[in-house]
Amino acid sequence: MRGRGMHPTAPLPEPPTVATPDRRHQGKPVGRRPVVDREADREGKHQPMYRRQEAEVQAANAEITISEGITVKELAEKLGLKANVVIQRMLTRKKMFVTINQTLDTKLAEEIAEGFGALTNKLSFEEETMQEVDLSQVEADMIKRPPVVTVMGHVDHGKTSLLDAIRLAHVADREAGGITQHIGAYQTVHNGQKIVFIDTPGHEAFTRMRARGAKVTDIVILVVAADDGVMPQTREAIDHAKAAGVPLIVAINKIDKPDAQIDRIKQQLSDLNLLAEDWGGDTVMVPVSAKSRQNLELLLEMILLVAEMQNLKANPGRPALCTVLEAQLDRGRGPVATVLVRNGTLRVGDFFICGTVFGKVRALFDDHGEPVKEAEPSTPVEVLGLEDMPEVGDTLQVVTDTAKAKQIVGYRETRDREQLMAKSRITLESLHQQLREGETRELNLIIKADVGGSAEVLTETLQKLSTDKVKIRVIHAGVGAIRENDVQLASASEGIIIGFNVRPERSATALAEQEKVDVRLHTIIYDLTQEIRKAMAGLLEPVIREVYLGRAEVRDTFRITKVGTVAGCHVQDGIIKRGADMRLLRDNVVIHTGKVEGLRRFKDDASEVKQGFECGINIANYNDVKPGDVIEAFTSEKIAAEL
Q: Which has fewest Cβ within 10 Å: 292, 399, 532, 537?
């Protein structure tokens, strides 16, 4: 039968060839297998088809900027690719299942971008936000701002007193021991122009805090006592100022003292490449007296003159960018941060991100404790509204995209938690090191301070006290009162709690007594370091010293059932105590060392028997006692070892 429309003589079409399925290929695609060079395959020249297709995909943008906490979607948009391409690449190359909104580690995002042929620049969230603002602002938006001045110098050279004389305040009277223990920021007005001062501690323990003060400053005032001269902390302050690249003004203080030598100070400073203007140099040096308020006006004039030459400007219309100078936990107000507004205007109601802390500005207080609605550039203020304690030195950045800010905070918290867990994990190398250093002892400390700067500095200072014999380990440093969880941590780690300018809560005190946790409270760092040294000495194996008690001569022996041999003795010297250590001497040769287990006078038990009396002595687990032997009693006392 022929199909409709076919010619009668046309040949019938050949039936289609159908491949007969082989049982070996059931459930598999049927077709010719590619010929593969096994040697080339081992060298990696032959790759699966999906790998070859994947390698051909290139990013549309040759160079991108990767910000902190970038998501898969954002990375794909910056690369100019579809999100599913990035997800597939992470699955095939990294064996990672990710979603489109998942946050990526900066290093991982960089590797993925490079895989698509894109060069990367890494920025933090704050840097990216600041960069966006800088691109959008113009020179016309910039206005003149007050200079930020940091006061530095050696301890007891009169830094805080000089600042007080300018502010007509008495900060030093309120400091423990007359030493500034944490950073304070204040502002004053001279000839209608504001000047912001940052006072930094002068004690060598606070080197890091001085360095942090220099990073946010425009001008450094180096205070040198005219009756003392250049000291180690003076040199450190000069180094910090040079590292920060800021101009330096020398205030030669205490010129009203009879032994003041101004020229000698200038000579010492010239040896450090600071040549006074009147000696032909370019360093401004002003002789002042904080006590008699001499030349203070001249010092302020010089500050404004140097600031004028720097042409300091800021944009008050942009979102605020601040630096955390100090942080403390207030019982009534919660976490409180002292910040310096570097650029922009900080207002009540602003949302901000600060390290791993997200918050909303609930209230602002100026350096006099008065509430304010906003803070312009170069203004120090206290900020309320933080959800947690920020780190000193963190950048506080006002944000408009709160969802993105919360995402960044969550990413940073996760990252910090993973880093902390990684530090706590022990490796075979560290275990071997610990076993090798078996003689080393550790002193665990929990530090609670009034402000974050003090906690940070105490951590570094106390850890420097470590020796070859004792290592100090700060397992926790925080701000605020000593609480129950601090005591529990100290109990679990067999540590000591150090309270610096804080007190324990009543419940924490009770728990510390119950758990036998040592809580030490201090207000001055010198006393604290002395006490820690004593505690370190207590960790070392004490020196054992033997104390002689007395001796008794064995006159006769008696065998008593269930007791053993009892020696009838006469106490010749000193005293014999029950439970004391003893030696059994025979012909002045020690034949046994043990303990006095039983001691009797006639039929009664006795705790001790003095010289001239007779007694019965039972030696623990020893019966070979003979008449004529001498029992010598002694005790061992421990003496603290020296570091």
A: 292
